[in-house]
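Section 5.1 Outputs to date
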Amino acid sequence: MQQQQYVGIDLHRRRSVIVRMSETGEVLSTVQIDNDPVALAMAVAEAGPDPEVALESTYGWYWAADLLQAEGARVHLVHPLGLHWDSRRVKNDVKDATELANRLRRNDLPESWIAPPEVRELRDRPLPGQAHGAANFGQGAGACGDGQAGILPTLDDMFGPGGQKLLDAMPFDGVYGLRVESLRDLLEVYDRELALVEREMRRLFKDHQGYKAIQAITGVGPVMAAIFVAEIGDVTRFPSARHLCSWAGVTPTLRESDTKTHRGHITKQRSTLVRWAATEAVVRYHGGDPIAPAFRRISERRGKMIARVAAARKLLTLVYYGLRDGEIRCLAHRAG
């Protein structure tokens, strides 16, 4: 007679780790699979008929739970907060899957209710008055795909033309098709609103030399430039670029006592919006040629987050001169 086997699955969006364990706690196998119904079914089938399977109730569990139950497995859905894994010194996918199998074997899992498909559809159905942010469109469409229906998008950017064509071709059924259609309709509304705002910005700033000048900075487009102009106002009220950076809260705190000097975290004082805009502008391109070398150098030595703040400070320095002088000379020299 075959012994009962226990399976722990650390389920992720694209890949998962599956650990099989015997009744005595011996690890029989550890495999990593690309998320695919056939691969998952074959890996769990190694545990024999009617295996006990544990997986967390995290993003994307619908398709896995439904598939395993259809294959005859007894699925246990685990509440992540009940595992208290934040207290572990080492946490990785293999250890997570092993711990799930071991706690399932000991009957020591904080289990959640596996809602049947009809209840899940009611939960996921868009309701009148329910708002979906445009910024969550890609996440929402992806959730309807790989998270619920088991369809894995091949693109990360669902906003572009390629993403829209992919959505047209994806076989969403029932409530999930309705949800994606609702999100796409909202995206069209947001696009119209953005077009109105951009048209008004062009009218307001058509004669503003500083607004035009700071768009020469890599990462600063019309919207970011409008934020800087509107929030900073009269830039001449700041004696220097350092004063502007201090006002925006991107300069470090300074503590001096006797012969000791300590520089700490940035102050985060005053204009939250300018600080956000400066930091956001350097995320992708790191400020372009005048700033990117410093970003890379600081990143290698002190990490990306500190380098990002330093790059934002340098970008605000360029913004200061662009607003004050109507041009940024270092960028003009490079262009020439």
